[in-house]
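Exercise 7. Predict the joint structure of the components listed below.
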Amino acid sequence: MANDLIPGSKAGREMLGSRLGFLLLSAGCAIGLGNVWRFPFITGAYGGAIFVLVYLVFLFAILPIMIMEFAVGRASRLNMGLALEKLEPHGTRWDSLGWVALAGSYLLMMFYTTVTGWMLIYCWYMGFGSLEGLNPAGVGNFFNQTLADPMVQIIGMTITVAIGFAVCAMGVRRGVERIVKFMMMGLLLLLVALVARSLMLPNAGSGASFYLMPDWKKFSDFGFLNVCNAAMNQAFFTLSVGIGAMCIFGSYQPKERSLTGEAVWIAGLDTFVGLMAGLIIFPACFSFGVEPGAGPGLIFVTLPNIFNSMNFGKFWGALFFIFMAFASLSSVIAVFENIISYSVDCWRMPRKRAVALHMLGVWLLSLPCALGFSTLAFVTPLGSGSSILDFEDFLVSNNILPLGGLLFLLFCCSRRGWGWNSFIQEVDMGAGLKFPRFLRGYLTYVLPFLILILFVTGYIDKFWK
Ligand code: PFF
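Solution:
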């Protein structure tokens, strides 16, 4: 397809202001609920330290795909929907899979907005001392009551959707860059302080060893491949790879810096936040007698106990949830931007109309998850005790992200796609770390099969056990 036919191509694209701006925005997209909410509860569910170890391996394994997403975005200056079309060789139909960006983004937001809502609600509860003086069982009950209140759930989710789309309506750079910079720094500092506090709690040592000392027996308890599957899915989730969100950031990036170095920075920051979150949660779990495998509510039934045990706990608690709300919102905004630019570029829809349409669309489709613990609690798609949230998370984390990641991988490595040479040329353009050439064999022949094998394992684990 000729360049001049592509709407939103180079000339019209808003560039990011600074290198720091790009790094923080991409880090803002990567760092979110995946690090502080999902990582701890999956770690708890899959045996602690052995999961962490395998997860770290998979972060390295998946990182090249994040770089590929950046490269596809920067080379095409387009969102995933049109990037494949622009870069694919004549006669191929990679672009027929561009809708993955839209479908994946919607599915992710269908539960992400609800959980971000929980963060917002907890800012309020913490700030007004609603959890003050409760014992650990009381903190657990409080969370369950919050879940069971449909009005509270809808309000939290609605505020999330409204803020996210309002920021997008203001434009990429003006809206996001400023806010994210400030909040991310705050979150990093507060996490370090909370680690120190959590490690000083009584019985913190048992939690730290659950989290950091691998117990190899657990591989046989959980099944080695199942642990690998969960670790791979978490790696995709936390790095935001597979639905073209990073492709968007690549498309706004100037060509002065090579992409590998930037990706290493982003993944490093992202991993740091996740590991810190674990160091806060698990010592506290063991100290307050909270079950590490408690599931998606884990941080909400653990953290308030820490704040209750601190001087000025109300203040620190509110601050923590405010920073977390912003970290989650920066991921929400990135994904909304992905959705909006898809419609602007692919459907040539005016930006304002796209914002209005998708605000309504995302809000409506987020309702099932928001009501999944009250009005719709009878819906248990993954078997008894499961929720709509679990099901939507399964669709995204076990399906769309790994398969979308596989798509980028094949596109960049295969001669019948964009191809290795074009990828290398783009990725190494600019100053900074160069992409390691020796990874070619691994990326072409090993990683795709690994993803497929673990994808199948995930299904066996879920449905045939
Ligand atoms: N990486 C985000 C998190 O850890 O919360 C989640 C996410 C955002 C996944 C954007 C995928 C994505 F495209």
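Discussion. DSSP finds 19 helices and no strands in the chain.
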